[in-house]
């Protein structure tokens, strides 16, 4: 399929999705939402894809919503922002968090507004040393959306989440790593090398197990201990019947490298 606002390719079990509106810092339009949604459907259903790498082209990762693309009514009444969230951003966030495959994000430049929060809901986030994260909503009289009010306090705690959200200051990649907002800050010229290396590694690992880890940690943040213990027992029961578990045990006993199928 040919895309106009993204680039999408699959190699070595890794789907690489690049936001591709560099002249607008990869800000989202309705067309981009549609194309990303189609690409994610393929990632979800194609068994040959076992990891997703999300990044952007040009000097920015994503500047959030392209305000010029938002349609206003002819009588100049305010735009219904809840409609945009309900129909575009929230389904996108749910698709990323519910995807039963690991998602690596490579933040190659500024990640602002919804763009920052889309990065933060990915499973493992790398950022180039020159990259930055900006919760710009407070500058417009808004709240962090696209999962921002959910992810920020879970990643950095209430005090830092409040400061980040209320001040809208630029958070450097190095500071983001120090605070636990992202996994790792790397030199600009190593960003894609490092993220692709990890993505290709994850694409050879037990995909069902990785998907279950993702779901367990996401739900565990709001579960009580007893509920989570029961969930762990049920999930282990399912995973213990998988081909990858049998292969992992056999490889351990035979002192060889396992060859996982993702099943």
Write a structural description.
There is one protein chain. This protein is of the alpha/beta class. The chain has two domains: 6-202, Alpha-Beta Complex (2-enoyl-CoA Hydratase, Chain A, domain 1); 207-253, Lyase 2-enoyl-coa Hydratase, Chain  A, domain 2, CATH 1.10.12. It is built from ten helices and ten strands. The strands form two sheets. It has a six-stranded mixed beta sheet with strand order 1-2-3-5-7-10, with helices on both faces. Helix 1 packs parallel to helix 2 (81-98), helix 4 (148-156) crosses helix 5 (158-167) and helix 8 runs antiparallel to helix 9. The longest helix has 18 residues, at 81-98.
């Amino acid at each position: 399929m040919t895309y106009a606002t993204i680039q999408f390719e699959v190699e070595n079990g890794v789907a690489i999705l690049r936001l591709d509106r560099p002249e607008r810092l990869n800000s989202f339009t309705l067309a981009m939402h549609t194309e990303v949604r189609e690409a994610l459907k393929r990632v979800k259903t194609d068994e040959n894809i076992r990891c997703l790498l999300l990044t952007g082209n040009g000097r920015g990762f994503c500047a959030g919503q392209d305000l010029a693309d938002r349609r206003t009514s002819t009588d100049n009444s305010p735009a219904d922002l809840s409609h945009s969230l309900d129909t575009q951003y929230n389904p996108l966030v749910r698709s990323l968090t519910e995807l039963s495959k690991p998602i690596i994000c490579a933040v190659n430049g500024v990640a602002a507004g919804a763009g920052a929060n889309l990065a933060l809901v990915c499973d493992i986030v790398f950022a180039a040393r020159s990259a930055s994260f900006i919760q710009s909503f407070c500058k417009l009289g808004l709240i962090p959306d696209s999962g921002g009010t959910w992810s920020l306090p879970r990643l950095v705690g209430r005090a830092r989440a409040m400061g980040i959200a209320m001040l809208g200051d630029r958070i450097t990649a190095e500071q983001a790593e120090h605070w636990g907002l992202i996994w790792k800050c790397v030199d600009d010229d190593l960003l894609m090398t490092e993220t692709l290396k990890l993505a290709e590694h994850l694409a050879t690992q037990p995909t069902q197990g990785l998907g279950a880890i993702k779901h367990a940690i996401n739900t565990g943040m709001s579960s009580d201990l007893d509920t989570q213990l029961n969930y762990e027992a049920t999930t282990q029961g399912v995973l213990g019947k998988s081909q990858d578990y049998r292969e992992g045990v056999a490889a351990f006993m035979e002192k060889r490298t396992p060859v996982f199928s993702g099943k």
